[in-house]
Amino acid sequence: MIFIVVKMTVKPERTEDWLALVDDFTQATRNEPGNLFFEWSKSVDNPHQFVLVEGFASREAGDAHVNSAHFKEAMETMADAIATTPQIISTEAPGNGWSAMAELTPRHV
Questions:
Q1: 50: CB partners within 8 A, 6+ apart
Q2: Do residues 90 and 1 make contact, with C-beta atoms less than 8 angstroms apart?
Q3: C-alpha to C-alpha distance for 66 and 17, rounded to whole angstroms
Q4: Pairing mode, if any, of strands 49-56 and 35-42?
Q5: Are 43 and 87 in contact (CB under 8 A)?
Q6: Cα atoms in the 13 Å half-sphere on the side-chain side of 66
Q7: Chain centroid, CA 62 distance in Å
Q8: How far apart are CA 74 and CA 61, in angstroms?
Q9: C-alpha dihedral (37, 42, 48, 49), degrees to nearest 10
Q10: Where is the ABM domain (predicted)?
Q11: Hey, which end of the chain has fewer CB within 10 Å, N or C?
């Protein structure tokens, strides 16, 4: 699995509409055959920072994503809304998605 985390700091005036701005890109990516997950979160420390967690089934699926028309279009759209160059971690990880955390389970009283 290709595992990617991207931190995107957006211009303050684009914070409120960021998720709407990237919605077409998000939906198109989630519909890619090799996409395992594509999830946005908002930082609790920086009100203008969003964190994207992505998973792709293989290097080929990740390459297809980066070479897709919707990816290229999204890069153009997002360039006008970001405040800084995004930070990224991209690595190959074992497995094919999320696993249950062994160290913590719900307590049932």
A1: 7, 8, 10, 18, 19, 40, 41, 42, 43
A2: no
A3: 24
A4: antiparallel
A5: no
A6: 12
A7: 12
A8: 18
A9: -50
A10: 2-93
A11: C
* The two three-digit tokens of residue 103, written as one number: 């160290």
Alpha helix stretches (DSSP H) within 1-109: 18-21, 23-30, 59-66, 69-79
Q: What is the pLDDT of residues 19-65, one digit of tens each?
A: 999 999 999 999 999 999 999 999 999 999 999 999 999 999 999 99
Look up residue 34 and give its two tokens: 């090799």
Write down all domains in the chain, each with its CATH number in brackets. Answer: 2-92 (3.30.70.100)
Q: What gap in Å lies between CA 79 and CA 85, rounded to an integer?
A: 9
With tokens 């995107």, the residue in question is 8
